[in-house]
């Protein structure tokens, strides 16, 4: 009988057993092999993610059971990694990218084997630096210069962007290029581009603003002359492009308003304002354009100017001042032609005063009242005659009419009637004599002007100043 517990490994051998007795013997060869205890547990750190061109930390087996004589692995490891068949250690530097795979390691001895699947992935080097030109300001409907990424590290497999770009711009997920023609206005925003590969990713925020096309060719009716207290016809802008808002500087004269949404100038000016340029600016996100509107606000033109007229003054006798009657504000007065010597004209008040020192035939003196809004004129008839030293007995009730006259005058107020008359020029020259018939005197051929009419009746003489016009 063969029995017991082998304590050593023994290769296969034939052991000859001989049975003996007195009669003889017989033999038999017993073949016996004593193997090691088979390994019964094998493990590695797993799964494992390595990076191309980066040395790995060795993967060492953990094994129990019998001593391992050799290790094997299948399939072959990615290039750059090595497998020690004596120790089962996986080491090295992977030189290729390898998708996730299971590599089966088998630990062997004479007693048997045990296996374990080591999961290995070899990723590319992650991209480590990404950048674009930024910030970027683009204009609606204008093609942009392409935005190209600058990237370092591992090769990029794909690009992504978030949020989506404004309409009209495109993003190439293979190259990371941003291109196109924006078709909308978009406020400033950050668009995050991510460059990816099997090793990881890197991101960069591209700042993009989409402005409108700047407005152009702004104009208004100009120059403009308005009148105080008179509503103006609104001034409307002519503009190319879209306008977000309008501005104006300096401020408009009181009573006029400026609409910052429409650019319209309207209202009723309440003050006088000298000529000035008001700069209107039309703005949008793409820029601005300006135009200078010239505005003058004049006063209300004076009107209804009048004086007492006609006027017959006497040489060397102070006159009663002639005062203007006027509606509206007057800045200054003027007169043409010049008044006869001795009379003065106040350009501030329009008053005519003084003592005439010369004889002057009938003439019209045009007074003009002026302000910034315009002017109004009135013709004052003035004649200056001589003082006649005649001892005249007057008819206190005598009347001559009409005066001024055009062709004839009538006489009334004399009991026995006027019998004859004489006509003198203001300088004293006798021009005409005649008999009065039916209290009427005709002067059809007499030139227009101021005359002295001397009337005779009942031993009395009456002198009247008359004006033919």
List keywords for this structure.
469 residues, mainly beta, Immunoglobulin-like, four-stranded mixed beta sheet, 41 strands, 0% helix
Strand content: over 45%
CATH topology of the largest domain: Immunoglobulin-like
Instruction: Give start-end ranges of low-pLDDT stretches.
Output: 388-393
CATH architecture of the largest domain: Sandwich
* CATH classification, class level of the largest domain: Mainly Beta
Strand order of the largest sheet: 4-10-9-6
The count of helical stretches stands at 0
Shape: rod-shaped
Sheet of most strands:
4 strands, mixed
The total domain count is: 5
Quaternary structure type? single chain
CATH homologous superfamily grouping of the largest domain: Immunoglobulins
What is the share of helical residues? under 10%
Mean pLDDT: 92
Number of DSSP strand runs:
41
Taking the alpha carbons of the first and last residues, their distance comes to: 181 Å
Protein name: Secretion system C-terminal sorting domain-containing protein
Pfam families: He_PIG (PF05345), Por_Secre_tail (PF18962)
Domain Secretion system C-terminal sorting: 400-467
Keywords: Signal
Q: What does it look like?
A:
By secondary structure, this protein is an all-beta fold. The chain folds into 5 domains: 1-123, Immunoglobulin-like (Sandwich); 127-211, Immunoglobulins (Immunoglobulin-like); 216-298, Immunoglobulins (Immunoglobulin-like), CATH 2.60.40; 303-385, Sandwich (Immunoglobulin-like), CATH 2.60.40; 399-468, Immunoglobulin-like (Sandwich), CATH 2.60.40.10. 0% of the residues lie in helices and 54% in strands. It has no helices and 41 strands. It has a 4-stranded mixed beta sheet with strand order 4-10-9-6, with no helix packed on it. A 4-stranded mixed beta sheet has the order 12-18-17-14, with no helix packed on it. The radius of gyration is 63 Å and the shape is rod-shaped. Residues 388-393 have low confidence and may be disordered.
């Amino acid at each position: 009988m063969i029995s017991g517990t082998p304590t050593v490994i023994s290769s296969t051998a034939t052991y000859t057993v001989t049975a003996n007795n007195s009669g003889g013997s017989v033999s038999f060869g017993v073949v016996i092999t004593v193997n090691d205890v088979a390994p019964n547990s094998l493990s590695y750190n797993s799964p494992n993610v390595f990076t191309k061109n980066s040395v790995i930390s060795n993967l060492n087996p953990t094994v129990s059971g019998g001593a391992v004589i050799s290790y094997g692995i299948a399939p072959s490891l990615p290039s750059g990694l090595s497998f020690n068949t004596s120790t089962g250690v996986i080491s090295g530097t992977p030189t290729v990218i390898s998708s996730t795979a299971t590599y089966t390691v088998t630990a062997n001895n004479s007693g048997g084997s045990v296996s374990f699947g080591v999961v290995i992935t070899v990723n590319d080097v992650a991209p480590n630096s990404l950048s674009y030109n930024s910030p970027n300001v683009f204009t609606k409907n204008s093609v942009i210069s392409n935005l190209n990424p600058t990237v370092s590290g591992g090769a990029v497999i794909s690009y992504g962007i978030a949020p989506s770009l404004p309409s009209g711009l495109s993003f190439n997920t293979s190259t990371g290029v941003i291109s196109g023609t924006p078709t909308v206005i978009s406020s400033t925003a950050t668009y995050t581009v991510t460059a990816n590969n099997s090793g990881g990713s890197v991101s960069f925020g591209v700042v993009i603003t989409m402005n409108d096309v700047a407005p152009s060719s702004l104009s208004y009716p100009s120059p403009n002359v308005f009148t105080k207290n008179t509503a103006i016809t609104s001034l409307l802008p002519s503009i190319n492009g879209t306008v977000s808002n309008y501005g104006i500087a300096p401020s408009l004269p009181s009573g006029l308003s400026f609409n910052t949404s429409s650019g319209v100038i309207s209202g009723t000016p309440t003050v006088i304002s000298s000529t000035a340029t008001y700069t209107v600016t039309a703005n949008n996100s793409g820029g601005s354009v300006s135009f200078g509107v010239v505005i003058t606000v004049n006063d209300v033109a004076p009107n209804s100017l009048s004086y007492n007229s006609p006027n017959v003054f006497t040489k060397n006798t102070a006159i009663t001042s002639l005062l203007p009657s006027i509606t509206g504000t007057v800045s200054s007065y003027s007169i043409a032609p010049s008044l006869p010597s001795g009379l003065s004209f106040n350009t501030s008040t329009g008053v005519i005063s003084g003592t005439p020192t010369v004889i002057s035939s009938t003439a019209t003196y045009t007074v003009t009242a002026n302000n910034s809004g315009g002017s109004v004129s009135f013709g004052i008839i003035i004649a200056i005659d001589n003082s006649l030293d005649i001892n005249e007995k007057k008819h206190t009730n005598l009347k001559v009419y009409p005066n001024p006259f055009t062709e004839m005058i009538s006489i009334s107020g004399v009991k026995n009637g006027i019998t004859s008359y004489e006509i003198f020029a203001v300088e004293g020259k006798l021009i005409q004599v005649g008999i009065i018939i039916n209290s009427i005197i005709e002067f059809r051929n007499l030139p227009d002007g101021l005359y002295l009419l001397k009337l005779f009746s009942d031993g009395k003489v009456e002198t009247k100043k008359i004006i033919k016009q």
